[in-house]
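F.,

This is the one I mentioned.
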């Protein structure tokens, strides 16, 4: 049982939330970044930023969404820095659409198809299909409008359909 949040020590409850949510945050970061080391760094930065800004958390019940929003934004920020620096994404295998694996023919390279998506497209696919968020919730986590997230999702699905049909 996690220690109670008190006026004397507001970080106790956040610390337990970070421990509980760490695995899920890592999965989200990995889906966006496609590199295990970068995903670990993004989660570490998420935890540091959350700890520093813990006083801005308004409701103890919204910690998971708050941490997810920080993680998504940190991951997208890391991704943008890669491209500014001219670095390519990592080659780590991604299990974003692992539940679909039994339905995908063996000769289809799902990882390559997902790798062709933009960071925003991959993010909305990961949040919506991989983690069960609605498109509106995904948009809020990404810091964009719901219509923008819908456009990213529609383009991602069209790209995946085209790539998986061609493979």
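My design for it:
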């Amino acid at each position: 049982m996690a220690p109670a949040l008190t006026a004397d020590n507001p970080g106790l409850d956040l610390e337990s939330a970070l421990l509980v949510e760490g695995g899920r945050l890592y999965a989200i970061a990995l889906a966006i970044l496609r590199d295990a080391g970068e995903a670990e760094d993004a989660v570490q930065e998420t935890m540091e930023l959350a700890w520093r800004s813990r006083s801005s958390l308004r409701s103890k019940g919204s910690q998971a969404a708050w941490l997810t929003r920080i993680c998504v934004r940190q991951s997208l920020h890391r991704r943008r820095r890669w491209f500014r620096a001219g670095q390519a994404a990592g080659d780590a295998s991604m299990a974003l659409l692992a539940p679909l694996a039994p339905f995908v023919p063996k000769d289809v390279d799902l990882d390559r198809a997902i790798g062709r998506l933009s960071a925003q497209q991959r993010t909305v696919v990961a949040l919506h299909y991989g983690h069960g968020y609605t498109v509106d919730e995904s948009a809020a986590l990404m810091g964009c409008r719901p219509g923008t997230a819908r456009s990213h999702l529609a383009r991602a699905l069209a790209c995946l359909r085209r790539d998986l049909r061609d493979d």
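The CA atoms of residues 35 and 90 lie 5 Å apart.

Talk soon.
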